[in-house]
Each structure stands twice: as structure tokens, then as C-alpha cells.
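Justification of computing resources. Each target in the renewal requires a structure prediction run like the one illustrated here; the chain below, 119 residues long, is used simply to show the kind of job we budget for.
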Amino acid sequence: MSIRPTEIRLHQQTRILELSFEDGAHFELPCEYLRVFSPSAEVRGHGPGQETLQVGKEDVAIDDIVPVGHYAVKLVFSDGHDSGLYSWNVLYELGRDYAANWQDYLARLAAAGHARRAG
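Resulting C-alpha cells:
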């Protein structure tokens, strides 16, 4: 069973997507984070080990949030990426696992020889 958001609010100036869920969970997720963890095949590939490391997304913003039925949204990013569907479960998991995911992303960037510049 999917847990549903009770509120989705985009803060354009700070590039933060604020999410509140039925169980009381509340997350503030940077657009960069949502972009580099897109559920799209372009980012995640079609199977384990096919992921593509996203670099240079520090300044990316969300230009539009398009509802998809009663189960997801499509986020349209300022770099043109718009192919991932963010189900309520995916958004919840990204919020819940933000700290670990972000540290893993920074480690993968470093291992690939990329330095993330401050956005």
C-alpha cells in the first residue's frame, strides 16, 4: 500500500521540494538530489550496474510538477530532464533515505574524480 503525500510545495528560490505525508513524515529535498536520484532509465539504467553518475547538477531547478494519476508526479527539470516518474513511494523513500543516499552520491563522485562545486 502506498503512503500518499498531503502536501507538495516547490520553493523556487531555494530549489527545495517540500513534502508532507499522511503518516506525519516531512521532507525538504533539494532539486539537485531529486535530479541525480531520478527513477528514470536514463539515470538508473535498465538493471543493476547500469546506473549513470549524474554530474554538474548543482544549479538544476524544477520547472514543473505534472501529476500522473493518483500515484505519482513527473518532475520537469531546468536541464531538460523529464523522463522519471516519482511515485509516492519513491518520493517517500528518497526523503527517508536522504542522508545515506547523499553521502553515497558524494562518495561515487569522488571515486569518479569529480568535485561537486557549491550550488
